[in-house]
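hey all, quick one before standup. I had two proteins in the batch that finished overnight and I want to keep them in one place so we stop losing track of which output belongs to which input. First protein below, input sequence then structure tokens straight from the run.
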Amino acid sequence: MRNCVLGLLFVLIAVPSVRADEDPCAGEMMRHYENGGGQIGPNVRIKGNVYISSQARVCDNAVIMGNVRIMDYATVYDNAHVTGDQVVITHNARVYGSSVVEGTAVIAGNSRVHGYARVTESAFMQGHSQAYENAWVHGNAKLENSGQVFGNAEVFGDAGVSSNGKVYGEAKVGGRVKVGLHVQIRGRAILTGGINLSGNPVNDAIIESF
């Protein structure tokens, strides 16, 4: 009897990288923007005193309005809206998805604003911080290092999230609260005042309210 050999076929499926780590404007017919020399795509809407420096890019259906500066290697794309009196997107920051940056917010470093997140008023982001999903970061709030705000969470006032700290779910963090060193604020937790959750006694803590 003839031996039958069953060959196993292994199919390698390449999982696409997150677009934010690729060239987000690849394939677009880019042109140089007159104020700063940066590149913009054909469907971008720009109005006001917008400056786009020579290495920065804006593409897809992004809308840039008001007194906005997009500097260094920063990129704004997808359906993002950037508008305000003195917004700065700089370094290697990326703003994309259907996110909104407005007011006098600064997005710097390797920060990412995406999903439906809003970063408004005088909020500041730097390092590898992220605001995404339906997060709202406003007031004078700061996201630094690898701080993250996501879900329906809100960070406001003079609060700060840094050093792998996370605020998510329906949580609200305001006042002068500092969240860091892997601390997680989630659920329906509400923290205000001058609490510092970045010290050694609360490393890796999870604060949750239902």
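OK second protein, same deal, sequence then tokens:
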Amino acid sequence: MQHPITPEDPRTQAKIWQVYRDYFDLAEKKRRWNLREDIPWDQCNPGLDPVIADVVETFCMVELFLPDYLSKQLPQVRGSKGRAWMLASWGYEESKHSMVLNDWMLKGGHRTEEQLHDMDNSVFEREWTLKYHDPLASVVYTMVQEVATRVNYRNLRKIAGGRCPVLRTGYAGLPGGRWWRRSTRWRGGQGSRRGRWRGGCGGAGGWRALCPPGDRD
């Protein structure tokens, strides 16, 4: 059972909303990218190692769980406008990521439309489950995952070795450093509850709980 956050001090909610508005205004000015116009699709390299396409397919499948990510985390923060709008904005960006990964595989000749359709179906047959029923734990978990994603995408660019301009362009046109900047905005949005995090499940034990079981030691 999910436990929505309880109402907080209006001043705190106002600060959270301002953090989101600052993030949103900066994104609109400097970070928004167009799927069709900002990516050099005509330079997709069909000759890359098939293993790279397998990795991209895996990344795409992770993004396709977006309906679960939103439908299960939004109820936790419905009472906080700043947090809820941030999650909705994050969902918009994630939807673009899934499309750009999908299009890279198709335009580069790494997958057929039928194969991508099968990929979609294989994901939608499953369901992502909420990891934490505490909204603060959920947002910190998301922050950690965003940083891990940045590392994964950076490593993929290294492996591709500049052989595909689409992958080289900040990974499919995404501005460099986007993952880290966004994760720090997430961190700022939950900062008003940082004291409870430190007292209740912080320190090594708290971070350890955010890791998959096989990665905790």
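Flagging for whoever picks this up: The mean pLDDT is 80. The CA atoms of residues 74 and 87 lie 7 Å apart.
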